[in-house]
Design a protein that fits this description.
By secondary structure, the protein is mostly beta strands. The protein has a 5-stranded mixed β-sheet, covered by helices on one side. It has a 3-stranded antiparallel β-sheet with strand order 1-7-8, with no helix packed on it. The protein has one domain. The N and C termini lie far apart (34 Å).
Amino acid sequence: MATTNFTISNYEVILFRDGTGAGASSSFDAVVSVTGEGNTVYLHFLNSETISSTNVWFPAQKFGRIYLHRALLPVAIDLLRNEKPVYCQMSDAVPGQCQLSTSPEPVGEGENKPY
């Protein structure tokens, strides 16, 4: 079981008209490839209200996939374009912990700050 956190140094946006495959539960509009520290993660933006694909992380290959709703594509591009640094967290044990973030700390590990 491995969790990997890395700083994203580059990204690439690939647009499709009904792309298929890559373990996706439906067709997809776009794939955003993020890389950093020798790791590569593909973000698949699916054309479905329901996502049944499971995020995957292969720590030995430093490769993974995150499946997201297509409505999040502009949010992800805005995050990658305008925020620095941006981190990616990947887990081979808990697929729900695969995420992009502007914080290097895993969820639940931070200080409890009153608002």
